[in-house]
Structure formats: C-alpha cells, structure tokens
Amino acid sequence: MTSYVVDIFKISSQSTCAQRKEFPPVHAIKPLLAKIVSGRKPFAKMISFMYFHNWRDWLWPMRLGREGRRCKRAIDRFLGGEMHFNGLDLNLIVALDAILSERNVTRAAEKLNISQPGMSGALNRLRQYFNDDLLTQNGKQMIPTPLGATLSVPAKEILATVRSRLAVQTRFLPEDARRSFTVMVSDYAATIFLANVLRALAVEAPGMTFDLHQYADIPGDALDAGRIDVLLGPQQALSQNHPFKPLFKDDFVGVACANNHAVDDVADIDSFLAMRHVLVRLGGSGLPTTDATFLERSFAPRRIEVIVPAWSLVPHYLMGTQRVAIFHRRLARDYATHFPLRMFEIPTALPIFEECVQWRASSRGDPAIQWLVERMEAHARTLNEVPA
After folding, report:
1. Is the pTM of this model over 0.70?
2. In this structure, are residues 311 and 327 in contact, taking their beta carbons and an 8 Å threshold?
3. What value, to the nearest 5°, has the Cα angle with vertex 333 and ends 329 and 337?
4. pLDDT in tens, 45-74
5. Across 239-318, where does the E strand assignment appear?
C-alpha cells in the first residue's frame, strides 16, 4: 500500500509538487488510485483530492471505503499526519465555515467542490466533536443551533487569520505581488476616491485585483466575519473591533434639477424640509447616511418622496421634477458635469463628513494590506489639498 503512495509522488518527481510533498494532478495518479481500490469503481467511490487555493486542499475525502481510508492513513503518515488541536481535526474548520455560511450541506459541498456525502461526513464529525447538532431542520430550511451560531464568526476569523499569515511575504514587492482584495465601499467613495486609487495601482501593482462590494446591512459585521479585507466608510459604519485611519473630509450641499427654481425661495430649514426629498439609505436594511441621521435627530421629519439604495440613482429621480436631495459636495460637483443638476446651499450647518479606511486586526502583519492602506492615505492627502 505505502509503495503506491511513494509511486504517486514519483509521477511528478521533476516537478515542484514532488519537491514540496504536494500531490500531482488527479489525472496523473488515477491509475494508482485504481489499484488501491481495485474492483470498487474507484473514482465513483473515491472523491477527488482537493487541489485548490487557500483552504480547500485541507479537506480530505470523507467517504473512501475501507481501502481508501487505508490509503488516506498511509499518505497522512507520509506527510506527517493530520493537524489536530484539542482533538479537533483542523481541516474540518473549512467545512464548518462552509456549512454554517450556506446552511445547506449540498451547497456547502458545491462551494468546496466535494461530494454531498463527503460534506455530510464532515458534518457528522463536527457534531461528534462539539456534541451538538450545529444545524437542525426547520421545515425546508436548516437553521444553526445556538452553539452553531456562536461558532460561525470564530470559524471565519480563524480562516481569515491563517489566510493573512500565509499571504505574508518576507519581502513585499507591489510590482510583483499577486493578490486579490475584497473591498466594501459605497458608490460615493467608489466614485470620487477609490476609482482614482485603483487607476494608479493598476500601474504600481498590476498583479493586484479588487472585488468591490456594496454596503451590507451592517458593514462592520462583514469585516468581523472575514468576508471582506477592507472597509471604506464613516466612523458610524465601522467595527469597533478593528483598526482604522481617517482619509478625507467632505461637506454637504443641496442638489436639484437645473430647472427647479423652487430652491430659489428656500429661506430657512423648515421650508427646505417641506420640499419633496430624495433620500439615500444604504444596504439591505437601509443604513442611514450621515446627513439623514443629523437631520432626523435635530429637526422635524422631512417630506420624503423617494428612497433609493445608492447615491448614483439620485440624479435620475431629480431630473424633470421639483425634488431635492442632500449630497456630498465632491460627488455633487462630479455629477453636475454629467447631469442637468444645480447645487445650492442648505439653510443649516450639517456635520463635516469624514471617510475612513478599516482593515481586520489580524491583517496587521500583512505587508500587502498595510501597503494598500498607505497608498489610500497618500491619495487622500492629495484629495484633501483640493477644497471640497
């Protein structure tokens, strides 16, 4: 049996796979695996080994049959055994995260590209370890038990921490780096700030890629759960559990259609609030913006006629109407060059808006994250030199 395992590595003896004690591609070892589980429709019984980035290569097939399990134990011995902590196979943390995120064994299996029986086996092992069902059937849905819900965030944090540590290089060279960053940002900051940053980084670090996400219900939660790497937003949108730095400031201005002359007669805050307003609420639960929070606390309710989930939609609901909206001045100036809009001063002083950047505490030692934050700060300093 063990000789077969050694032969598997000899297949790629000239490759980096063999030098690293990593497995060659499945198609290369298929004949040998067929010998190990001969007569058992081997590749119907044996689930393919995981050859994916990050954590997926930690997961071993869970339903191998008797000979398959012998093969697994032999290869484990060859590689130095499974990793355990207090009796928990650390490989199962990946499965735990997928199962609690998807709340469905089939979808979790598809996410990790393993079979449904294999994921069911992983769930059974997790249930045995924690002595808890973790997920229970509720009608057609599966819901986490109290313990399962408690484990969801720690599992993501563990994986995020390991991902960050594995990504650290002894010498970080932006021009050679191959990294992908997930950034949560409003369309305001994406338009007047981040677009310019990424335009410069396309030259400075051409191997970096960026996945931009709209605001979630509570943006800080996405950072806590490890779903994003960087969060851009005002302080009230940030998490209290992670470091952040201020970037740039902006103030607010009224915006209306170019031929809306009703704004000429706005003399005080009461007449302004009585006008027909377009309001922006971000995220699925309608996260209030800075201006909305201030006005709601300080004055009588506005006459809200339209609520939209993004700043970029506002001009379309102003044009050809008598509606008004409150905008960040930098964004209003930008949109006024593309849409028939006019800007006017709001008859009250609103708080200054400050955009910040936040990253996970576990990324403090990641030079790529630190470099990205420093580049954002540099571009923000340039932006701050130009009055809003």
Report:
1. no
2. yes
3. 165
4. 333 333 223 333 333 343 344 545 555 554
5. 244-250, 252-257, 276-282, 287-288, 303-308
